[in-house]
Amino acid sequence: MSGLPMLTLLTVLPLIGAAIALFSGKHARGVALFIALIALALALVVWSGLPSDGSIGMVELHKWAPSLGIEYHLGVDGLGALMLVLAAIVTLMSVDAAHRVHHQPGLYYGLVLILESGLFGSFTALNFFHWFLFWEISLIPAFFLIKLWGGARRGPAATQFFIYTMAGSVALLIAFLALFLSTGSMDFRQLTQMAASGELETLVKSHLGPVMLWLAIAVLAGFAVKVPMVPFHTWLPAAYAEAPSPVTMLLTGAMSKMGVYGLLRIAIPIFGPQIAQIRTPLLVLAVTTVVMGAWAAAAQKDLKRVFAYSSVNHLGYCLLAIFALAVPASGAATVASQAAALNGVILQMFNHGITAAALFWFVAMMQMRTGGHRGIDDFGGLRKPAPVLAGLMGIALFSSLGLPGLNGFVGEFLIFRGAFPLAWVAATVSVLGLLVTAVVILTVIQKVFSGPVKEHCSGFPDLHSSERMALAPVIGLMLLLGLVPQLIVGSINPTVQNLLAHWRF
Amino acid sequence: MLAWTIYISFAGALLEALLPKEKNALARWLALAMALAGLTIGVAGFIAGMGQGQVEIVHAAWVPSMGIHYLLAADGISRVLVLLTGIAAVAGVLFSWNIELRTNQFFAFFFALIGGVYGVFLSFDLFLLFVFYEVAIVPKYFLIAIWGSTRREYAAMKLALYSFVGSAMVLIGLLVAYTASGSHSTALTDLAHAGLPVSTQMWVFPLVFTGFAILAGMWPFHTWAPTGHVAAPTAASMLLAGVVMKLGAYGCLRVAIALFPHGLDPWGFAYLGIGSWRDVFALLAVIGIIYGALVALAQSDFKFVIGYSSVSHMGFVLLGLMTLNQIGLDGAVLQMFSHGVIAGLLFAIVGRIVYDRTHTRQLAELETMHLARRMPFAAWAFVIAAVASMGLPGFSGFVAELQVLIGSWTTNPLWTAGAGIGIIVGVAYTWRALQMAFFSDIVPGAHVIGQEQAHPFAAVTWPEVTGVALLAGVSLVVGLYPKILLDSIEPAVKALLAGGVQ
Amino acid sequence: MNYADLFRATLPETVLELAALLVLLVDLGLLRNAALKSRVASATLIGVAGCAVAIWAVYAAGWGSLSNGSYVVLAAGGSTAVAQVAILFLTALTLALFIDTGFTRNPGEYVAVVLMAAAGGLIIAAAQDLLVIFVGLELLSLGLYILTAFAKKSAKSAEASIKYYLFGGMSAAFLLFGFSYLYGLSGSTSLPRVVLGTYMASAHGGTFLLLIALVMIAVGLGFKVAAVPFHLWAPDTYEGAPAPAAAFIASVSKVASFALLISISHAILWWPSMLHLTGGRVTFTVSPPGTPPPHMTYGFVSGWPLILMVLSAASMIIGNLAALAQTSVRRLLAYSAVAHAGYILLGLAFFGWANVSAQAILYYIITYGLTTIGAFGVVGVVERATGSDKLDSFLGLQKRNPLLAAVLLVLFLSLAGIPPLVGFWAKFNLFAAVLTLGSGPFPVPGSLSSLPHEAVGLVALAIAMSAVSLYYYLQVLKRAYVMPAADETPIHAHPVTLAVLLLIALAVLLMGVFPAVLQGWIAGFGA
């Protein structure tokens, strides 16, 4: 097992699957499910094979184009491995949710698998070229998935998605070109070390002048589009709403995590001091994201848009924690808070991924059963005709709200636990977000599940057994992680300690 | 061995010309066999030459009294470009499979052109290089004038005259270099070591460089290119944009820069930041990049978009040449290869796959035709081609443009900024073309759908599929593993730089 | 000088005259009642045979020149021999083209006049004395006037001939006038003595007269080679004369005239060799480098190149630009001939000691002559089939007679200067010779001194005008290959004609690919 290049295998598998799926016609879904399952198994193997001290394991390093500093350098630590597992789970969920792709199913599932490969690739990359390659690889299928199978206004939504993400990519490319010009390296670990020792800033200054701060802003902008962070979020509601729900599951469950992962793997380690310099404006933006996301969610009538803005809100907490922990280490208490915040971020990424994906899955099911309706006011009293649906969706909704005992709580708790000591003003204001989210979720529950049953909902079929079997593990995971978060935190914590040890602000 | 590429091509041209008329199938298969033979030799020569440096192939006295030799040799750059020509030739034949008018004559001119191109890339005697360079002009004229489309006679004449004027300028430079160095020899290495006085180099260099750069599509002498590309039949456009424009760039590198390096020295005074011919041509290159991209953005004819994008991409090659450092020149040569393949693919799709079926190239009309559904192969092939053209990592264009950007940054950051703007606009116009032509949001009415189903487009043929697979595959392989070419390019560029270019 | 020497020196001319008489005899005597075709065939055969024997005679005559005392009257060997062989060969080719024509019922007279005119050409190529030059020139010219008028049924032919005659007569008068001044200035009619004499004369204040003389001579000779502004006869003559005659005018007379100009240029350079004849003393001073050159009197050397440069530039520009507007292929060829004359005059303007210049000029004019004959051959065939030589007659030629179209392609691309055809090599060779010697008639070969601006400027002009020429040559080729045919009936060409044309095209191609062959042959004569 140790001899196999697991990460390469994992990344290449969905590509092979995509090639098969493209020509499988009606059987494409089966192929995709099969591949996604194997991918999940592999991801779990990777997860279990991590080194226990939290350092980067399963390293693969080969020369690629030495004159350009490009190496084939892959590796995962706890953070990366967790993201791999998340991506695998969300993809599996997405494929499962997409029963009825009538139009060109082979192409649809092929694109989904290519997207999965892109996710795997960027979560395992340790060299900029490789990372950027897979970052872009994930963009193209996403665009086409929205454009070809989306809703009524899919054209503009897809275009906006593309333009924003491309602009972000350009910013990232420019910044890394600048780093390469100054240091001759594109390797994340090397750059992190140089940043920690202060050498990076010196090199950049001598080659290019005092532009380090601008480079940091460019990199932050690139990721800010992806997460998204206010004010670069405007592409999200349209894209999430117009995309078919299984695609939205992928977008929110996995692709948005690429942005946060990027902040953790690239932005903070390499541009730590610069981020610390502009911490305050960043915190303001993070808080705005949190609050605005929640408030906007409250104003929506379309369930998908409600959950879309809610996603913005939930990822805003991650941003809050990330920027909050960007302070120079000054004592055990600070370090402990940083560790807590970081743990919270990672957990939140995983938990939100699962939860949000599940929520959109439920919306998909509701759409299917009512011929496309997905407005809040289109439903009522679903508890009666579909108790199982109501129950399971309720669990997911409460997890999203952050009810203790469900997985959504742990991440948010740790985030606030870490953020309060480090940035109490920001944390306090963010609590508003928590409150408004609660209102939103409860409103949804009330409007959708309780109250009088609408006529067109009376014949609402409940979940059939295949759906129950598919959803059960997900909901079960939510409960399990809510009650025993140690399962993940135990493996994450060493990585967190390791990361913090290498970061300098 | 590589010399056989030339001989086979000319022999093929002659054979095709002598074929009886109306034997179109025979003409096609013969052409394919010739092209494949050339490609095989090119690949074999490339592999055999890996790590070899400059290898002499043929050295025979031609006009000994004047020191003119029939000297064929290949270094890394030549081998890479010979490979490109082989690929372009095979693809060109595949995408001309449906030509019915005077088929044998078409392939005769086609191979005469290819033979001339092979000859330029393999010549190491300046006179011989010039002969092959000019040989390539006349077949181009006929290919466009006889088998072309929009305004073909005007476009063909314009192209022929511009090329001829460019080569006339080169001839003057050749004569001056030859006679000023004592009329001993026209071999490239001898002329490079002749040590012409700086004052002579100062005016010969821009003359020769411009002469070659006209064919490379440098702004403002590029106007033949969009007209010519649009008018030309598909295979000719593929060759024109893919290989012939590279002849010009190759000439700039192999002749202008290598023989007259002091022409790039600073003048001693500077005006608006321009203090040497290097600055002038770099500026023109950057203008070409941005101008080509902006104009492409405004086009209503699909093929014109691709034509102007060629001008823009060649600007990268010229900019890379003007960086005069290892990485910039590497990027320029790699971009020559990469753009050759990608441009070939773009023209193939637009010209052969789309136009031959829809009989229109107007984006506004294509928008209503629902092409993503009716010709999915073309749509997805174009997605791949567009993505490669944009410079997405994973395809060859990314590495090449990256190298040019890095190379130009170390010389003058402003150029890099300009080139960067060009890339961004490049994404925009490629995007626009993709959207409008294939994935438009216009939903046709029911009666239109019925009409469409009653008159389906001709199915995709195997030559088209093979051609697309070949070109896209090459771009992908080079994009993922650029070392395969860089290992040949880098030593050759190093040798060139060590030879006095600074 | 005795008659044996004279006979030996003029053996080639004699052979030609004898052949002409033989043709007349056979045609008017033996074959009086035979069919026209056989008369034409027999006349042609005898004519070609005569040329062949004359070529042998050139070789057999040896390299000895004919002198009258210490003055050379007729040179032999060197560039003279090359020119003479070329004239004879090209004459034979134009005679071969005569076979298929039907414009005259007097083939014997036609061939005889051609041979006699060719003899005049041979004399010009060898002449070293002003009077001999004039005699040869008139012999050639009178023959050409007659040939132009030979198509009795064509009004154009007669008109062209009258124009040619009037113009030619005038220029001959100018030439003679100029010669008389030269005689007056130098006291001799032998070229080298004339050149030397002009130096001495201008040292005594005769510069103005010398200038007039040079201009007059330029008029006369410029007419012969159709240089601007003395070219106005060319378009009409090329258009009106019957095709073989036009071919003859375009090729042989040009070769002869340029050979004459080469002789004059050689004489200009070799005047120091005459110094021993003047008696008296000659002092040579060697100045250290850097000192300004001593003042030289205004002799031949100073004025002649300048005149040639002006003529050359004017011919190149006007010839090419005028050709752009033509719709008749013959007139197009006429103006292109003017342009080509311009290029060659450039070579003469920068003429040097080394053999390079003479060889380059000879190479150019020989290959140009060959190509032009081929071009007129094709034009003749097309004219006979379609009735006109307008551009539109060539429409769809590639379908009507693919071989003929291929020949046309090769020949016209060669004229445009496209490698690997011989036309390109000829131009390259010529321009290289000009630039090598651009610094004057006394260069230091192999030096790295920067090139003089006039030479480079004029070469650049020549190359630029060459580029322009591609346009009008392509116009004809466009009609032949690109544009659809108006009338698709096949065009039939006589097998001999076709064979000759194919051979010419093949020669153009092969000589372009292996230029050393012809160059070596020319150099072998020690030109």
Molecular structure report:
Chain A has a domain at 278-505. With 505 residues, chain A is mainly alpha-helical. A two-stranded antiparallel sheet of chain A has the order 1-2. The relative contact order of chain A is 0.10. Chain A has 19 helices and 2 strands. Chain B has one domain (3-498). Chain B has 22 helices and 4 strands. Chain B has helices at residues 3-18, 24-49, 76-94, 103-122, 126-135, 137-147, 152-180, 188-192, 198-215, 224-231, 234-259, 277-297, 302-323, 326-358, 363-367, 371-374, 376-390, 396-411, 413-437, 446-454, 462-480, 483-498, and strands at 55-63, 68-74, 266-271, 274-276. A two-stranded antiparallel sheet of chain B has the order 1-2. A two-stranded antiparallel sheet of chain B has the order 3-4. Chain B starts with a helix and ends with a helix. In chain B, 65% of the residues are buried. With 527 residues, chain C is mostly helical. Chain C has a two-stranded antiparallel sheet. In chain C, a hairpin with a 2-residue loop joins β1 and β2 (71-74). The interface between B and C is large, with 41 and 37 residues.
